[in-house]
Design a protein that fits this description.
This protein is an alpha/beta fold. The protein has 21 helices and 31 strands. It catalyses: tRNA(Glu) + L-glutamate + ATP = L-glutamyl-tRNA(Glu) + AMP + diphosphate.
């Protein structure tokens, strides 16, 4: 039953239905001859019809090939239905702004309206906004609803060709343009073009990908790129994504790492079809190894490891290379048993010892390792190498395209040759550039050194480039995703600056995070306002002057207030200053101790004074027992060099000072902070709450969030 035609009145096109059909790839002939106020109608090839905008939209949602377009389960479908019921409110002139505000607040903590995929709920609301024409465009160019604008623009950027075509016809607009600066538009155009690459021989609905981390550490920012690229291509080709743990080295792996990698994948918002383990295929891998031995394509070698490595580099064949089948099988069984003799051996592929590509010089396929495996215990004494297991399991699991970073470039020929020797189905390799960050180590072996030597507090330490580490420091996952997608699937090697990532993050958190006040406790100075209130009084003021969703806070006004010592040093006698969230005051006296340090200021209020005429706008706190103790924590890079040279030892550039704690006093409202909440301390920067208020004697711990301006080291 095919759609024959979509009919609707010429003056009221069902924009959401047309957009959904366009994105789904449906050819949708239209007829605009229906009389005014008629419901849009789908006529099918068998003569049957459906009527009503959202009935038609639900139909397209059910039959479209886009993943989870009408939700992945009944609950999500119900959530989508709620949004479809809400969508018509955008056409009601008086309710338009309230509707924008409602959706904006919802999108503060969501990337899309339902689940993790674009759905017909997004299409309905997006079309409702676009359909208002200039009214929405005017709001879109303002900074009023930044979450809503971000969401709207992200959908437009992803599907700009289709959306421009539809809106040009039905909204009377020549072209939608993201409400951004020319520089930002250039960045988006560049990122979009760099990401729009094709997988070789990919067919819609038949692509099957895998993200295959080794469970020997937590996911870091480099792994995030690989994971998100796999997700992108799986969604683009409406295919499948497998998470496969490459658990072939029991000495380095653990269930802790498995659990935390799955947690990190969830944090990144990556949906997958299944989770598998290379260890699930150990019996088949052993059978394949024995088959290759019998075919003369592999042999057991007892050459000492260092000598073996040197011979590979020099292109010298092992004396074991031409062992008889009987000798190879005998030594193979010793390896399986984990005997003393077997521990001296490894299994090598018989490829080409003279190949200029050294990865093809008889690579190791199996090694003995008596360490128990974290999943299957002591069932095996031998384990396959990644180079042997990966091409086999990729083929067995039906992977169509293996995404590999450029560090594996020289081993791609090895991957293909091993699949050829095994006689398994060929898998396409797609290569992308590895993500490298300045002043950053991404080797799990090197990161483990910091953990084991107490240089950090664990894999989720805020100084670590792990997903958990950078999120703990205050990075929004949305910023990380945007940062990685902007780079695209380029094969060019790149060394990225952290500043760019933190700048993206600032643009996300600044419009919505609440504002609070803190004063550094050491040498803070008392300012006595001689004409200040004899009895302290309070006012309820916004936590963010431009974003109502941040809520309100209670501020106490008193004649005795505290300011930072550094601010006090900047003040002169008779100078007029501005006390933020209060008004102006004139400093009349400055008291100092015998060493010349300022100990106290006196002044008078001048609330009628203009804040535009003062040089100093100061934060302050009332001198009261209600203040809370804070520990402000700043971090620096773990190494002091932007990029390590080939062969350079990272231990030579370990940063001796990477963490600084400052005691401070904070306003009483900070008692209500939750762990993970992001805020701005006025004039001090952005922070993430790591330890919330527990009791007065235990400080609230706030981690400083970089804002994209170059860090110069801790002092």
């Amino acid at each position: 039953m095919e759609i024959k035609v979509l009919s609707f009145p010429a003056d009221s096109p069902p924009l959401s239905v047309i957009v959904a059909a366009k994105l789904s790839g449906f050819a949708l002939p239209t007829d605009t001859s229906l009389p005014p106020d008629s419901a849009p109608t789908l006529l099918f090839s068998n003569g049957m019809t459906l009527h009503g905008t959202y009935v038609l939209l639900r139909y397209i949602g059910r039959v479209a090939a886009l993943p989870n377009f009408y939700g992945q389960n009944a609950y999500e479908s119900g959530q989508i239905d709620q949004w479809l019921e809400y969508a018509p409110v955008f056409s009601l002139g008086s309710a338009f702004e309230n509707a924008c505000k409602y959706v904006d607040e919802f999108l503060q903590s969501h990337t899309v309206l339902v689940g993790n995929y674009l759905s017909i709920a997004d299409i309905a609301i997006w079309s409702g906004l676009a359909g208002t024409g200039q009214r929405w465009e005017s709001l879109r160019k303002s900074k009023k609803y930044q979450n809503l604008v971000r969401w709207f623009n992200s959908i437009f950027l992803e599907y700009s060709d289709a959306l421009n075509e539809v809106t040009a016809i039905y909204v009377g607009k020549k072209k939608l343009v993201a409400a951004k600066s020319k520089e930002q538009q250039g960045e988006n155009n560049q990122s979009k073009s760099s990401f729009e690459v094709d997988l070789p021989d990919a067919e819609l609905g038949k692509v099957r990908l895998r993200f295959a981390p080794e469970p020997s550490g937590y996911l870091h920012i480099g792994h995030s790129k690989a994971a998100l690229l796999n997700r992108y291509f799986a969604q683009r080709y409406q295919g499948q994504l497998i998470i496969r743990f490459d658990d072939t080295n029991p000495a380095k792996e653990s269930n802790e790492f498995v659990e935390n990698i799955l947690k990190d994948i969830q944090t990144l918002g990556i949906e997958h079809d299944s989770v598998t383990y290379t260890s699930d295929y150990f019996p088949q891998l052993m059978e394949m190894a024995e088959k290759l031995i019998c075919q003369g394509k592999a042999y057991v070698d007892d050459t000492p490891r260092e000598q073996l490595q040197k011979e590979r580099m020099d292109g010298i064949e092992s004396r074991c290379r031409n062992n008889s089948l009987e000798e190879n099988m005998k030594l193979w069984k010793e390896m399986i048993a984990g005997s003393e003799r077997g521990l001296q051996c490894c299994l090598r592929g018989k490829l080409d010892m003279q190949d200029p590509n050294k990865s093809l010089r008889d690579p190791v396929y199996y090694r003995c390792n008596p360490v128990p495996h974290h999943r299957i215990g002591s069932n095996y004494k031998i384990y396959p190498t990644y180079d042997f297991a990966c091409p086999f399991v990729d083929a067995i699991e039906g992977i169509t395209h293996a995404l590999r970073s450029s560090e594996y470039h020289d081993r791609n020929a090895q991957y293909q040759r091993i699949q050829e020797d095994m006689g398994v189905r060929k898998v396409h390799i797609y290569e992308f550039s590895r993500l490298n960050m300045v002043y950053t180590l991404l080797s799990k072996r090197k990161l483990l050194w910091f953990v084991e030597n107490g240089k950090v507090d664990g894999w989720d330490d805020a100084r670590f480039p792990t997903v958990q580490g950078i999120v703990r420091r205050g990075l929004k996952v949305e910023a990380l995703v945007q940062f990685i997608l902007e780079q695209g699937a380029s094969k060019n090697l790149n060394l990225m600056e952290w500043d760019k990532l933190w700048t993206i993050n600032k643009k996300i958190i600044d419009p919505v995070c609440p504002r609070h006040t803190a004063v550094v406790e050491e040498r803070c100075v008392l300012l006595i306002l001689l004409d200040g209130p004899e009895e302290p009084f309070t006012r309820i003021i916004p936590r963010h002057k431009k974003y109502e969703g941040a809520g309100e806070k209670c501020t106490t006004y008193s004649k005795r207030i505290l300011i930072d010592h550094s601010d006090a040093e900047s003040i002169s006698v008779d100078e007029e200053i501005t006390l933020m969230d209060w008004g102006n005051a004139i400093v009349k006296g400055i008291e100092k101790d015998q060493d010349g340090n300022i100990t106290q200021l006196t002044g008078v209020l001048h609330l009628e004074g203009s804040v535009k005429t003062t040089k100093l706008k100061l934060t302050w706190l009332p001198e009261t027992s209600e203040l809370v103790n804070l520990t402000l924590v700043e971090f620096d890079y773990l190494i002091t060099k932007k990029k390590l040279e080939e062969g350079e030892d990272f231990l030579d550039v370990v940063n001796p000072c990477t963490k600084k704690e400052t005691a401070a006093l904070g306003d009483s409202n900070l008692r209500n902070l939750h762990r993970g909440e992001i805020l701005q301390l006025e004039r001090k920067g952005y922070f993430r709450c790591d330890v919330p208020f527990i009791r007065p004697s235990k400080p609230i711990v706030l981690y400083a969030i970089p804002d994209g301006r170059q860090q110069t080291g801790l002092k």
